[in-house]
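[audit] Reproducing an earlier prediction to check determinism. Same input, same settings, fresh worker. If the tokens differ from the archived copy the diff job will pick it up downstream; this log only records the rerun itself.
[audit] input (315 residues):
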Amino acid sequence: MKVKGETSSLSNIMKQFMKASRIRVLPVMLIPVALGALGAFVWDENFDFWLFLLTLVGSGAAHLFSNMINDLWDYYNGTDEAAKQAEGVISTNSGYLTNGTWSIRAFAAVTWSLFGIAAVSGIILSVISGWPVIVFGGLGGLIAYFYVAPPIRFGYRGKGYSEVAILLSFGILPVAGAYYVQSSQLDYRALLLSLPIGLLTTLILFNHHFLHWQADKQAGKKTLVVVWGEQRALVFSRWLLVLAYASIIVCVITRALPWYALIGLLTVIPLYAVYGKLKEHNPSHAYLPLMGGSVKATNRCGVILIIALLIQGLL
């Protein structure tokens, strides 16, 4: 009975950690890392499985750290509490701080432990592959921390800083960084390859703001949705979608991707249909399908691009 109880307790802790860190969205970081590593495999015939695995661990820990440090600072800044109290607003944080499920001390301890794993992974990779790995990881870490932390607070300024930060953090840095880890050099194709997945992930984060933009406005968090208003932000969201999928065509033209990667364009269809159901003004819950569709399109498209590169490398 004791063993069963201990197993149950451990399972509960893991479930709480998975919710607190929002581990379900981890693929948006692991996919660009896989793309960068496969770029080295296809273009340079360089691929080390153990370096790839360590890159996945480090970048994954960095992403979970980013999720939790954002929740921590949103709690300090009052954004999460505003979302909890605002009528009709959908809160997207774990609720562990606002509901008192975890103490601030415990939440911070787990958060910084993840940072430690990411930092150690980055140091090991830099020793093996070269000092620029620290630059890639360091820039990602700074963006993750200052996304909502003072004095920079990218996510609160509403001038497109947060969108650029996401494009860098989930596109350019992980793809180019993973490519460098494998090859110890840079290639313009890695930059091009980062654009489809980076722009699609930026779209996820942008559409995420529609769920609680009224609460963000109340808390002084000036996302582009707050600054532009719902209607204008929806227009931008659609154009961001077009740009993301157009970048796949650019990658094929420049031979950063094989021609059959164009199959990834099909993943836009279900998401495009969701946009067609939205009006100029919508309640928060109406944006849940848009958010879900954005995540599915990003993951599906990313997996197709990975498979396309893998096939090209093996042929």
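[audit] rerun output stored. Observation attached for the diff report: Residues 25-79+94-314 form a domain with the Farnesyl Diphosphate Synthase fold (CATH 1.10.600).
[audit] end
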